[in-house]
Design brief:
The complex is a heterodimer of chains A (411) and B (246). With 411 residues, chain A is α/β, with parallel strands linked by helices. Chain A has two domains: 3-294, TIM Barrel (Alpha-Beta Barrel), CATH 3.20.20; 309-402, no CATH class. Helix content of chain A is 37%, strand content 9%. Chain B has 246 residues and is an alpha/beta fold. Helix content of chain B is 48%, strand content 15%. Chain B has helices at residues 10-22, 50-64, 66-78, 83-97, 108-130, 151-161, 192-201, 206-217, 226-232; strands spanning 2-6, 28-31, 42-45, 134-136, 139-144, 166-171, 176-180, 185-189. The longest helix of chain B has 23 residues, at 108-130. Chain B is elongated. The chains are: A alpha/beta (411), B alpha/beta (246).
């Protein structure tokens, strides 16, 4: 088969994997080598769906022996199949990299023959890149669920990041839609990777020559909207993954119907706005010091679609506001809607040299449209109307109601 | 009113700053190439003097901060309208406020400087992302037309990353190119015609075709969102990007 055909089939088969980030890498170029990491990652292009293209994202093969209902590559699905040889995949990576098309490779695969065989093929590809081409660019590898621990460990010595996709947020959903996978086959490798990263850090202190193990950490992906799991259970799971498994990123992917499996019959495309809100909430967990239980609870199990999660939280905790800009701590400043990490830091910096006036706030990058209801500056409040929950809700919502939930379209 | 003009180099600009303190504080500084004589300003051309440049440079570094010095350099690279005068105002302020200058986020001048610096950094980052090399007999050539003069701050990235390949990054807008010969790089004058001559020799389109192919198939049609695409990747950069060419 022509290499163009293979690339078309195997990139289309990989596109539902959301992650394309190349951040967190620390790899430097070596003598006679090619490539390095860029700490915050680089997005080399943006496809017509608006998503970043940072890595060459392909499956090594989409010949699969599993039958997961949500997946386009399941054995029972009638799609074109193809396979790259490890040499072909490595050659493509290097030639794209030299032209500055990509930051590196994101290599995944369908389960070809069995998990161990597949994992070995992935390892062979990255070994060619790292050892034959002396490639120091970014490599993200997928750990194949069910593959031997030793293989995953070996892979981790070549890759910058490894991910194991959780796919579905609960045991029940997984059982229904991915009968050959189980939660243990997903969480065991995650545990293994976490522990190896920790041990590797200890070894690095003791022996300078220790090869780094997954220096950019691990990530995972959840499909949302294919099963009835609530945002609360999704956020709880994400929080647990960040805290106990030390994950770098959890990705959320609004379900796109790619199959006509009877188990998924009648399930529509999940609204993209839900995915967007989950990402916003995820950001609040990772950078803004929020806990999942602050954002959601049993009575309130799903994120508000009409308002961003921070504004929603602020309105429900109205007694904490308004906040005095000239006195508040960094921790409480970043909880104000309309104030981000950067503008909060600028406020703190500017306060060390002079007082802040109301009119200064815009210059500091505060989004006054949202922030004005929640702050005072030198005691001044310019929220325009009286400080009441219902009025605030009205002002801050996107202008559509709950019953429009299914109609929202971005196109 | 007084206007200093200079040769357009960074050392020329800082020489103007030196003379501003020792001769007379001008109301405006402008690159000689851009300056048009008029009734309002009385022009005084300042010759670039490396000693004076160094004195100002060191004074900024020691009495203000490296951060501020970098701000000044980036704003100079912005080539924005009146950026030279803005730099003079900023330096006057910085010598008064000292190392803490950049904490005055609420100061109009500090804010303008920060915003211009961010613009330049952002475009430099975009160039690291959007530059596309064509392989022409193992010479890697790329053309760009950035808003700001980013060539001096982006080339090193490619040198460390791709040390074993000869490359040219050609700024068509400014008729200059950064060239690298596997050892060191420098910026030289380079015309559009010279660039076109090179491209005509190019015949290695195999990987370019593959890349376009990949670019198409990686997109999820059910999620089409061209507005978002344009937000992240402004259309003015497209004509030099392999995947956006026909």
């Amino acid at each position: 088969m022509d290499i163009n055909e293979k690339l078309r089939i195997l990139s289309a088969a990989a596109k539902y994997d959301v992650s394309c980030s190349s951040s967190g890498g620390t790899r430097q170029n070596t003598e006679g080598g090619i490539g390095n990491s860029f700490k915050s990652g680089l997005c080399h292009s943006f496809s017509s769906d608006g998503r970043c293209i940072s890595l060459l994202k392909i499956l090594l093969t989409n010949y699969c022996s599993y039958d997961c209902a949500y997946c386009i590559n399941r054995i029972s699905n009638d799609v074109e199949r193809a396979a790259f040889t490890p040499e072909e995949a490595a050659d493509l990576t290097i030639n794209f990299y030299r032209r500055n098309y990509i930051e590196g490779l994101f290599l995944s695969s369908a389960v070809f023959k069995n998990p161990n065989y597949t994992m070995e093929l992935l390892i062979r590809t990255v070994r060619i890149l790292r050892e034959d081409y002396r490639f120091n660019g970014y490599i993200h590898l997928k750990a194949i669920p069910g593959a031997d621990e030793k293989l995953i460990h070996t892979a981790g010595l070549y890759a910058d990041r490894i991910s194991v996709n959780i796919e579905l947020p609960s045991r029940e959903s997984l059982k229904l839609l991915a009968p050959q996978k189980n939660q243990d086959s997903i969480f065991n490798p995650m545990k293994l990777i976490k522990n190896s990263i920790i041990n590797n850090k200890k070894d690095l202190v003791l022996y300078k020559s220790t090869p780094k193990f997954v220096p950019a950490g691990q990530s995972t992906q959840l499909i949302i909207g294919a099963t009835p799991d609530s945002d609360l259970s999704i956020m709880n799971m994400a929080e647990n993954l960040y805290e106990s498994y030390k994950l770098k990123r959890v990705y959320y992917s609004a379900y796109v119907p790619v199959s006509n499996s009877p188990k998924l019959n009648g399930i529509l495309r999940a609204p993209l706005i839900r995915e967007h809100r989950l990402y916003q909430a995820d950001w609040l967990l990772r950078f803004y010091g929020f806990k999942a239980k602050e954002l959601l609870d049993e009575n309130n199990p799903n994120l508000n679609i009409s308002m961003d999660p921070k504004a929603d939280w602020a309105i429900r905790n109205i007694e904490k506001f308004p906040l005095e800009i000239n006195k508040a701590s960094l921790k409480s400043l970043i909880r104000v809607p309309g104030i981000g990490l950067k503008s909060a830091e600028r406020i703190i910096q500017a306060r060390t040299v002079s007082g802040i006036d109301y009119d200064d706030l815009k210059k500091l990058g505060v989004v006054m449209k949202r922030a004005k209801y929640f702050i005072t500056c030198n005691g001044k409040w310019r929220g325009e109307f009286s400080f009441r929950e219902a009025l605030l809700k009205d002002r801050l919502s996107l202008g559509f109601q709950e019953n429009m939930y299914q109609q929202i379209s971005f196109f | 009113m007084k206007c200093f003009t200079y040769d357009g180099s960074f050392s020329g600009l800082l020489t103007c700053v030196y003379e501003a303190y020792y001769i007379e504080m001008p109301d405006k500084i402008e690159k000689a190439l851009i300056y048009k004589p008029n009734f309002i300003y009385q022009e005084e051309h300042i010759e670039t003097d490396m000693d004076k440049y160094r004195k100002v440079y060191m004074a900024l570094k020691e009495k203000v901060s490296e951060h501020s010095l970098k701000n000044i350099y980036y704003v100079y690279l912005s080539e924005a309208k009146d950026c030279d005068t803005l730099i003079l105002k900023y330096i006057k302020l910085a010598f008064k406020l000292g190392p803490r200058t950049d904490l005055y986020h609420n100061n109009e001048i500090v804010m303008s400087i920060r915003q211009l610096r961010e613009k330049v950094s952002k475009e430099a980052l975009r160039m690291l992302e959007f530059i596309r090399f064509k392989n022409i007999n193992n010479l890697y050539y790329s053309s760009i037309e950035p808003d700001h003069y980013v060539l001096p701050i982006i080339t090193n990235h490619f040198k460390t990353r791709l040390p074993d390949q000869n490359f040219i990054i050609h700024d068509l807008k400014r008729n200059e190119a950064a060239i690298y010969n596997k050892k060191e790089w420098m910026i030289i004058p380079f015309t559009r015609e010279e660039g076109e001559k090179l491209i005509n020799k190019s015949d290695q389109v195999f990987y370019e075709k593959l890349w376009r192919n990949y670019f198409k198939s990686i997109s999820i049609n059910e999620r089409k969102n061209e507005k978002l695409q344009k937000n992240h990747m402004p259309q003015r950069y497209w004509k030099h990007m392999t995947e956006m060419m026909e």
